Amino acid sequence: MASMIVYHLKDIQYKAERAITPFHIFDLDREALAAYREPHTKDHFCLLFVKKGRLNLQVEDRRYTVNAPHICVIFPGQLSAKELLSDDFEGKLILFDEVLFCSDILKNELSIYNYNISVKLNHIELPEAETSEIEMLLEQVEKSYQDLTSIKKEQARFYIKIILLKLVEFVHTKWGNSQLSNENAKIYGKFLELLERHYKTERTVSWYAEKLQLSPKKLNEITRKIAGLTSIETIHARIMNEIKQLLLLSNYSHKEIAFELGFNSPAALNKFVRAKLDETPTNLQQQLAQMYKT
C-alpha cells in the first residue's frame, strides 16, 4: 500500500533565500496544480484563489465545486485533492506556516469567534466588493514576494494576515447570520457580539446572560456545547487575546495595558495573567516576541 503524500513547506522554494520565508505564492494553472490532484496532506496552510474556471475540491469527506472567484483555505493535516479542473483554470496559491497566521490565536481567539473554522474556511464565496479587495491584497503580496527584502517580507506577511482575518470575519458573519439555524448557535453568536463590544468593561457571565434574557446556567450550557468552553472561559480568553495583542504589537506599558483593559492596577493585570498562564506579563511578552520574530 502506497504511503500518503505529505508536502512540506521547507521543501517548496525557488531560491536558497526562500528557506527563511514562512510563505510562498504561485500562479496556478492545470499543469502547476498537477502535483496537488492526488489525495495528500501538508504541514502548512494553503490558500487557493480561483481567478478563472473551476475545479472540484475534496477536503476530508467534504466535496466542493469551486468556481471563480471562490477562495479555499486548507489547514495543516487536512486530507485534500483537486479534481476535474476546467481547461481555462487559473488561480493563485499561497502556502504559509502557522507562525505567520499565529497558531496561538488559532487555538484561542479563533476557536471562540469562529467555531469549526477549519471547515468554514475550506470554501468561501465572496461578494464582488470583497473579492476585489482580496485581489488587490494578493497583488501586493506577490509584488513584495518578487523582491523579498526584509521590509517587503514583513509587508507581505502583513497583507496575508489581513486577507486571512477578512476571510475569518466574512465566514463568521455568514455562518452566524444566515447558515446557523440552530437556536443555541444564534444565541452563542449574539453572546460573542456582545462580548466583542463590552469585554473591556463587563466581565461577569451574569451581565451577558441578562442581556440575552437567559440564566447564567443556560448561557454556560450553550457556550460549552457550541465551543467547548464555559462562558467565563470565553470571556477570559477574549481578554487574554487582547493582552497578547497589546504586548506584542503596541508600545503600551503594562500599566497602560492594565487600564486600557479595565484592570484596577498593573498588579491586577499581573494576577490575571498568572492565573491563566502561570507566568508574568513580562515573561509572556518575551515569549511572544520570540515566537513571532522574523
TrEMBL record:
GO molecular function, one term: sequence-specific DNA binding
SMART domains: HTH_ARAC
UniProt-listed Pfam families: AraC_binding, HTH_18
Stretches assigned to the HTH araC/xylS-type domain: 189-287
Record flagged with keyword NAD: no
Top-level taxon of origin: Bacteria
InterPro entries (alphabetical): AraC-bd, Homeodomain-like_sf, HTH-like, HTH_AraC
Keywords carried by this UniProt record: DNA-binding, Transcription, Transcription regulation
The protein's name in its UniProt record: AraC family transcriptional activator of pobA
Naturally occurring in which organism (per UniProt): Sphingobacterium siyangense
Organism lineage string: Bacteria, Pseudomonadati, Bacteroidota, Sphingobacteriia, Sphingobacteriales
